[in-house]
Amino acid sequence: MENKEPLIITDKDDMRRWSRSARAQGKIVGFVPTMGYLHEGHLSLVQECKQHSDLTVVSIYVNPGQFSPNEDLSTYPLDFIGDINKLKNKAGGVDVVFHPKDLYDYGKYDGVVNARSNGLEEGKVVSCVENSGQGHETWVRVQKLEKGLCGSSRPVFFKGVATIVTKLFNLVEPDVAVFGKKDYQQWRIIERMVRDLDFGIKIIGAELLRDPDGLAKSSRNVHLSPEQRKKLISYWDSASQTWSMELNLQATSISESLFHARTAAQKGQVVCRELKDLVIKTIHEAGGKVDYAEIVDQESLEVLDEIKSPAVFCIAVWFGNVRLLDNVEIAV
Amino acid sequence: MENKEPLIITDKDDMRRWSRSARAQGKIVGFVPTMGYLHEGHLSLVQECKQHSDLTVVSIYVNPGQFSPNEDLSTYPLDFIGDINKLKNKAGGVDVVFHPKDLYDYGKYDGVVNARSNGLEEGKVVSCVENSGQGHETWVRVQKLEKGLCGSSRPVFFKGVATIVTKLFNLVEPDVAVFGKKDYQQWRIIERMVRDLDFGIKIIGAELLRDPDGLAKSSRNVHLSPEQRKKLISYWDSASQTWSMELNLQATSISESLFHARTAAQKGQVVCRELKDLVIKTIHEAGGKVDYAEIVDQESLEVLDEIKSPAVFCIAVWFGNVRLLDNVEIAV
């Protein structure tokens, strides 16, 4: 149904009631968790979800549990009305938008427990939730997959993700949930968590979507100026004695260099060190600061020295104060 | 219905299918997780469960995830046929006994991931599951409540309990689950986990049951000899110049001394140090080795110096190689 107004649910119990009622009618409930500020990438997850379900729930909730106190929770972009319109007009409508206020607020202020939260364990990584002292103290950890890649530079991120996804699964009680392969490590972590904790939910990984210039779609792209994506620069060509123009790749150097590495690997260049060096050099010259660039096994996310089995080249890059993720799968 | 044969389910998918079918018929599903070797205490949990549900599921599964490699997994008592008979004859019948074989076996041997499990994090506590290398790597932790009391001497215990209960909740999908207050810390941890992870399950804490001699009922009591519970000793009474008999409390000194402490507290003796010293001394004289004896807040399990609010005196004691738990709630 096109242009359908979604039912907006903000209350936990209402959400579960809706879902159980849908299930009791034999409907397959599909779920796409998001942090809002929706773009075509999210909408493609919704489309994917609809292929596998009768009814679709999209959650819009910026999860404080996956941000460290020094990360960009406060500047994370929000546009709830715009999101609803996109879901209504571009994705052909969804059934429910679950938009809870605070999923870590349990109503009762528990003074004794909170008093203890000051005495955090040594070496303990702190999320915005632990800092706000709401008494929440249960965390889900996927101990091996959460290491490395984004886990290295964002120590609370995946425990925050695994925990909020568990909470959302328990509230929405879906049959199917869709995660983007843009966040490759996240997708694998959720798959593993669902297996290890025996959730009765099928996880689908949806392909990464790119802008026409190759940049992977992300809510954070809004912070990039046009010049930070790519820009034309003019220079004096002494050979031809004329002014000339050149396209200076900036953020788009990420995807360009990844595609180049994939092609090289498919042509037989399978030594990861050399593939990585090339990508890092290209992005560095374009003005980016590489947070990590790793070629890992597609399932275990084990770092590879040589590409012998299905691999994925995962990268995180800072352009200015914007951190961008990208990856390409490499089948050899 | 008396003497009802329970349906025995061993397969994960069959369990979930049964539960969803029951729910679709509007039935309230109640759940009692156990590790088997059932005694009157478990049967009282089943009775409690029936007060709150239309259909009752009891799981019998010895969870390797809550044992350290040096703990008593291999000698944990088993009696599946006896358990089924008790459930049939003494508890008035249950609907389902869920008896899975191995809840950490995911079918596929994942060599790459397992290879990494040798390089466990520093200071990481290892459970029998991590040691068996089945690729399971997701753990649920209730970070504050799992500290102290049993958590101090059994470092993997509560992460194992929280994780297996999450798995069982996801497989059985009950509306109500019953936990015994005999395992007081466990009950509070499950309550908190259910709140923090938004499980749609009501948790009920059932009262501790005691044998006529006062000993808290436990599967591990089977390892105690009659003499380790209490014994009569004869001695020469020099005052009366006769042989006399005296009841020498051993394991039963635990409950005796706890009751005594509760009475003292209710009479105004609220300094925890003194109450604890008395209990420790009594048990020590009876031949027991106190693992811990703490008076804590009933909800936060925060250690108390003085009893000013509802408290619980929790204790763990070794008699020989049997570790016994007990507790009394103290309302002042």
Can you describe what's shown?
2 copies of one chain form a homodimer. Chain A is an alpha/beta fold. Chain A folds into 2 domains: 7-206, HUPs (Rossmann fold), CATH 3.40.50.620; 219-330, 2-Layer Sandwich (Pantoate--beta-alanine Ligase, Chain: A,domain 2). The first copy, chain A, is 33% helix and 23% strand. The first copy, chain A, contains 11 helices and 12 strands. In chain A, the strands form 3 sheets. The first copy, chain A, has a 6-stranded parallel beta sheet, with helices on both faces. Chain A has a 3-stranded antiparallel beta sheet with strand order 10-11-12, covered by helices on one side. A two-stranded antiparallel sheet of chain A has the order 8-9. Chain A is globular, with a radius of gyration of 22 Å. Mean pLDDT of chain A is 90; it is low at 109-120. At the A-B interface, α1, α4, β5, α7 and α8 of A face α1, α4, β5, α7 and α8 of B. β5 (138-142) of chain A pairs antiparallel with β5 (138-142) of chain B, so a sheet runs across the interface.
